[in-house]
Specification:
The structure is a single chain. By secondary structure, this protein is α+β, with helices and mostly antiparallel strands. The chain has one domain: Outer membrane efflux proteins (OEP), CATH 1.20.1600. The protein contains ten helices and six strands; from the N terminus they run ααβααββααβααββαα. The strands form two sheets. A four-stranded antiparallel sheet has the order 2-3-5-6, with no helix packed on it. It has a two-stranded parallel ribbon with strand order 1-4. α5 packs antiparallel against α8. The radius of gyration is 41 Å and the shape is elongated.
Length: 476
């Protein structure tokens, strides 16, 4: 049977709960403003389909236009690779045409094939015709001292760099989605605690009403007034908690583009063991996309420098040029030494040599690549130091959060035993009401603290995984 307790002591319990709710509310709302800027869909309802963190992140990425923007960066870098490869076969093919109206010519003493001998040749202004001239040129490199292959390598390594940088941007956005997911887990947990508080308030009101109707009303009026004031204050605080829960629901729906689903409950920490720092650091240096991007950038600069230095040597190429003109009212001259620009056909084919004689410009270009390589090498060293510090900080946060959660879990288990002990004492008639209320109060306090600790541990694990460059849903 339920245990009846004095209302003055129940009020103490509710005030403890109220303070915890206010403190916990800030634990999952600090990142909401940033997350809202990254979303752009309409909110919908929620159903019973359960999503894991990994599934939620995947669906969240599919629902935002941010992914499309990042994919465009990758597509552009791949275009650069294809463009570099296109320089291997006929990098220059050009066609030029000219058109117009020209008058014919007339001669009184020379045949058409010898008009160039007539000193009195004149235009025939009554005979007009369409003039058409076309010229096509093509060049095929034969030997470039490795300039073209090096340029292709530089483009390919640069594309790899862009892909790794895109992974870094993906990881940042995934953390934002993880904050929504874990915030929803905390919101669900707090709502359960709120329901327990609602039930206690309802029981208190029913007991007051029952005692007044039965004529057994023997409560201290000051306690009743205190309870009524608390109930009014609690309604305001509960409204704030409900508003935050609604906001989390909207963020959840926005992230999923209206698809209906719910989050899993917080994972337990039984058997969880964080690896030593040395292993985590080695993993981070191997997996971090930022470091891979720098390494790809170094290879791209090295290949680009080889391509630039190859310009110091002459390029051997195969050239083709063909041109011709047709004008019906202008006779073609058969003498190959006579050039008739309005009616002719010619072609040239052979091997050519091209040499860039601006040696100072080539030297400066090589110096630029050297400076960029030195800069990137220093960036790599700085990045390695930052990764090490990041792993140290995130590992410390994870260890602290895990230890705190385990401690609170153990305390909650012990407190539940305390509550059961006090309830049994009350059932047998020799219990102390104050002890029972203190036990209930401590249990409620620890339940809220455990929910917050689960949130802190989950976020610490996500940030540690981000620092290691591994999937955020990885467990230990």
């Amino acid at each position: 049977m339920p245990i009846q307790t004095p209302f003055g002591q129940q009020i103490v319990e509710f005030f403890v709960f109220l303070k915890l709710m206010k403190r916990l509310r800030t634990a999952f709302t600090w990142g909401i403003g940033t997350i809202l800027l990254l979303m752009g869909s309409q909110a919908m309802g929620q159903s019973s389909a359960v999503l894991s963190l990994e599934e939620f992140i995947q669906q969240g990425l599919e629902s935002t236009s941010t992914v499309d923007v990042l994919e465009k960066d990758v597509a552009l870098s791949q275009w650069e690779v294809r463009n570099a490869r296109s320089q291997r076969i006929l990098p220059l093919v050009r066609l030029e045409t000219q058109h117009g109206l020209v008058p014919g010519v007339e001669s009184s003493s020379f045949p058409d094939g010898q008009l160039y001998l007539d000193p009195y040749l004149d235009n025939d202004w009554e005979n007009w015709a369409l003039f058409t001239r076309a010229q096509i040129e093509a060049i095929q490199p034969l030997y470039t001292w490795g300039a073209i292959p090096s340029a292709i390598q530089a483009a390919r390594f640069n594309a790899e760099r862009v892909e790794f940088e895109t992974e870094v941007k993906y990881a940042t956005f995934e953390v934002q989605l993880a904050e929504i997911y874990i915030g929803m887990q905390l919101s669900n947990s707090l709502m359960l605690i709120s329901k327990e508080a609602d039930e206690l308030i309802s029981q208190a009101n029913e007991e007051i009403l029952k005692q007044r109707e039965d004529g057994t009303y023997d409560l201290n009026e000051s306690d009743v007034f205190e309870f009524e004031v608390f109930e009014l204050e609690y309604e305001g605080q509960r409204a704030q908690v409900d508003a935050v829960a609604e906001q989390m629901d909207r963020l959840w729906s926005l992230a999923l583009d209206g698809r209906q689903a719910v989050a899993e409950e917080f994972m337990g920490v039984d058997g969880v063991s964080l690896p030593p720092f040395s292993e985590l650091l080695a993993l981070a240096l191997e997996q971090r996309a930022e470091l891979k991007a720098v390494e790809a950038g170094q290879r791209a600069l090295e290949a680009g420098k080889r391509a630039a230095l190859a310009e110091r040597y002459p390029t051997i190429y195969l050239g083709l040029s063909a041109s011709g003109a047709i004008t019906p009212n202008r006779p073609k001259q058969d003498n190959p030494f006579i050039n008739n620009s309005t009616n002719f056909a010619s072609a040239r084919f052979g091997i050519g040599v091209s040499q860039n004689l601006n040696l100072q410009s080539l030297r400066l270009k090589g110096d630029k690549f050297s400076i960029q390589q030195d800069q990137l090498a220093e960036t790599e060293q700085l990045l390695r130091q930052q990764i090490q510090l990041d792993v140290v900080q995130r590992l410390q946060e994870a260890e602290s959060a895990l230890a705190q959660l385990r401690s609170l879990n153990a305390a909650l288990v012990k407190t539940k035993e305390w509550v059961r002990h006090e309830q049994l004492n009350m059932d047998y008639g020799f219990g102390d009401v104050k002890n029972l209320v203190d036990a209930f109060k401590k249990e409620l306090e620890l339940e809220a603290a455990v929910s917050r600790a689960k949130y802190e541990w989950s976020m610490a694990r996500v940030r540690l995984n981000q620092a290691l460059g591994i999937p955020l849903s990885t467990t230990y």
